Amino acid sequence: MDKQVQKFREHNNSLLPKWYKWELHFLMNLVLFLFFFAIGVKKIDWYSILTPLYLLAAIFIWGLIEYAIHRFILHGNVFSFLHFKKEHTIYHHTFFDEKNMNMQSAHDLNRTLLRPIDIFSVLALNFCLSMLLSGVLGVKGAAYIYLGGIIYLFLYECLHALTHYYRGKNTFLNGIKEHHRKHHIKETMNQYNFAVVFPFIDQVFMTFDKKGIR
Q1: Are 155 and 163 in contact (CB under 8 A)?
Q2: Residue 36 contacts by C-beta under 8 Å, 6 or more apart in sequence?
Q3: Among residues 50, 79, 82, 196, which is most buried (max CB within 10 A)?
Q4: What integer pLDDT is reported at residue 86 of this predicted model?
Q5: Quick one: pLDDT at residue 46?
Q6: Is residue 67 part of a domain?
């Protein structure tokens, strides 16, 4: 591992509270997902054959939203004062660069998973948004958007963690990992490969890094 990255990781870990445990971090995030999911799950007509299609559409919509946030806010020139932008663009991209993508242990999930306060904030905003949309889409329509957002964020957290942990031979997971590795190339991280769950979105918007060699 690069000495500079190793030094940063050691410094980062030294700043964590003594009570920090990755298991607690993971459990708190999971509880938040289950809590917010339970709020909206009863508003969905699970017996309708169209429900899977509506949910898939909602998940994809959130994929587009996440792509836009990742590209234009986290790696853009706006809202530079936001703390989570600094957390992502500086800390996460220093903790993991294109040559040092893997976690050394599960403890490094502290720089891979969103913090519980971030998970709560995103899901709470999703809830508020669905309440506003219910006036336009109706309660059921808004519920699909709401649950789609929760499912998408869960998928994002899982796949993003795997891009920094997985070392197997599965073609799909290695493809996701390689796509994200190219995003961590420091010289071009503000230009390419912003999508994690749906990498093809980068091809649609011409932000796909074909070479990834610097």
Answers
A1: no
A2: 123, 124, 126, 127, 150
A3: 196
A4: 81
A5: 87
A6: yes
CA distance 60 to 197: 9
Domain that holds residue 22: 3-204
Q: What is the 3-state secondary structure (H, E, C) of 62-97?
A: HHHHHHHHHHHHHCCCCCCCCHHHHHHHHHHHHHCE
Tokens of 198: 């749906």
Amino acid symbol at 105:
S
211 domain residue, yes or no: no
Q: How many CB atoms lie within 10 A of CB 122?
A: 19
What's the number of domains the chain is made of?
1
Contact partners, residue 201, CB within 8 Å, separation at least 6 = 63, 64, 67, 194, 195
Task: Kindly list the averaged pLDDT for each block of 10 residues, start to end, along the chain of length 214.
Answer: 89 92 96 96 89 95 96 86 80 92 93 94 94 90 95 97 94 95 94 96 94 60
- Do residues 195 and 201 lie in contact, with contact meaning Cβ atoms separated by under 8 Å? yes
